[in-house]
Amino acid sequence: MGSHAVNGVAELHSEIIKKDIFKAFYELFPEKFQNKTNGVTPRRWIGSCNPGLAALYTEALQSDEWLADLEKIAEAKKLAKDKEFQKKWAEVKRSNKKRLSGWIKRNLGITLNEDSLFDCMFKRIHEYKRQLLNALYIIYRYMKIKDTPVQERKKWVPRTILIGGKAFPGYMIAKKIVKLIGAISDVVNNDKDIGDLMKVAFLPNYNVSLAEMIVPAAELSHHISTAGYEASGTSNMKFTMNGCLIIGTMDGANVEIAHEIGEENMFIFGARSDEVEKARERVCLQIFNCVLIFLFSCLDEESHSRGILW
């Protein structure tokens, strides 16, 4: 009411605010509404936490101006297929994976296969962010590997699955999800039949210092919230800037990241926000119909007739 400007924190979120949350206000004062997408600084999330990659960018661009103007990094596209550049890139990633593996060995006692794909999901533990969906996939992958004859298991790419994040202390379901991931890791990591094909670790006490080790080492990162639920999200930006591929839904800042880097460079799946809304409406209608049927079934014949008339 009292603001001269109103914004969401990502393009999709700003559209939801106009079409749904503050629809009436938008119709009255459309000029107030704008978008301000959340952001992160490359000075910390490349320059500080990933000095090897920062040096590679600076060498390739013959300047460090990209640290203050990230759009300048687009000039490095021409090197994407350069064999020498790819080799240096891989060496930087390998060094970062080795650093994170050392921390996990010292603090969790888990020995990782540094030649495996580092598959990460680090964000607040919440139902809409769908760590549970990822946990179910981990179980599925484990069972599929177990079902594969030993002589055919070379087709499976070795994978290290790393998960972490904060949760509200009273959020019981979040605690149960963390407990489930810990139980899965106990089973997988102690199965000698699986060996280095799969490791799972929940990294405790997630904070910025730990993120500065995880982000440069990650190769695949999950951002899979139900479309329309994630206001923005910024860890997807951090992972992308450090050469990590995203598997995700078209939600929050994923939409704008896709605009910048191209959907062909992301693994996008799932319903879009408008499809989710239609599905929710169908479910609500089905629930309403079930309630009516239940109420009518509880009535005697006379009141049942009155109910039908009503």
Q: Compute the average pLDDT.
A: 93
Uncertain residue segments: none
CATH homologous superfamily identity of the largest domain: Glycogen Phosphorylase B
Number of helices: 12
Q: How far apart lie the N and C ends?
A: 41 Å
- Estimated helix fraction: 40-55%
Instruction: Please state the overall shape, judged from the principal axes of the Cα atoms.
Output: globular
- The number of strands is 8
Number of domains: 3
Please report the first level of CATH classification, the CATH class of the largest domain: Alpha Beta
- Amount of beta strand: 5-15%
CATH fold-level topology of the largest domain: Rossmann fold
CATH architecture of the largest domain: 3-Layer(aba) Sandwich
Structural class: alpha/beta
H/E topology pattern: EHHEHHHEHEHEHEHEHEHH
Largest sheet: 6 strands, parallel
Radius of gyration: 24 Å
Which strand order do you get reading across the main beta sheet? 5-4-3-6-7-8
